Amino acid sequence: MALSNIRLEVMKTVEKQVDSFVDKYLIPIEDIWQPTDLLPNLQSENYIDEIKQIREESKELGYDFWVVLVADMVTEEALPTYESWLMDMEGVQQHGRQDGWSKWIRHWTGEENRHGDTLNKYLYLSGRVDMREIEKTTQYLISDGFDIGTGRDPYRNFIYTSFQELATNISHKRVGQLAKNKGNKMLAKMCNVIAGDEMRHHLAYREFVNIIFEHDPSEMMLAFQDMMKKKIVMPAQFIRESGEGIATAFENFSNAAQRLGVYTTYDYIDILSKLNEYWQIDKFTSLTDDAEKARDYLMALPDRMTRIASRIAVPQDQHQFKWVAANGVL
Description:
Distance between the termini: 61 Å
Order of helices and strands: HHHHHHHHHHHHH
Largest sheet: none
Radius of gyration: 21 Å
Strand content: under 5%
Shape: globular
Helix content: 55-70%
Number of strands: 0
Structural class: mainly alpha
């Protein structure tokens, strides 16, 4: 049987459990939090005071913090790209409203959509950033397309989502901690509840891969190796500012995140180690020769990457983004 056909059969097998995945890892719409639960209620009499509180507390947050928060928000707002990418995977039939995998993807998208809405409204109310420049950046990120090296292969796509959902959990959680340390309880709560969503999603995608490993271990191992050789690129890799070329803003954003300790090379390595451990890739036997080599490569990779990371210095100079004024005041 052709490899693509084997993948389709495995996807159909895992798809039979989609309803249980939705019940276990996603929350019914009537029960889950919504952005307005965390933001000032503009229908209340004291909404002005709540907005003043946001603006006052935001003064304590530094330049790199705003750069990272903006880029995190823009990444979340590029959701149309992510949904269309997952819907295009082999094995997904998107034309039936409640058809298996498309049901999962739509429910997942609905949860993710709240993240960008929440952070966007907070940034708008804070008055600390240039929203029009940010809005152009978001439109560019969606318009410029998306290439994370997975193609339409579900094995590679689920490796990517397993990794990336945990990365976003870490980033949002760290931003929330920085906000809390500066006395900004409202923003800290927003970031923490978003991080909680990301962790649930990570656990789901991690489990998808685990089940695929049970049915097609050699090909799953090769897909895992391929994604790590390419490196897991961030969904905002093509981020840019207005008037600039595609992807020109990503490195400077990444440097700001590393300076703050929001998301570092060591976090990347730690995620890989956690996935290796959860999937117990060291215990797989009866693999093909190529898959055995892939397993050995993946087991050795964290130590190899740590040695390289120890020799890399993070630039300390701050790039001046159009999103944020140098002194934090527009």
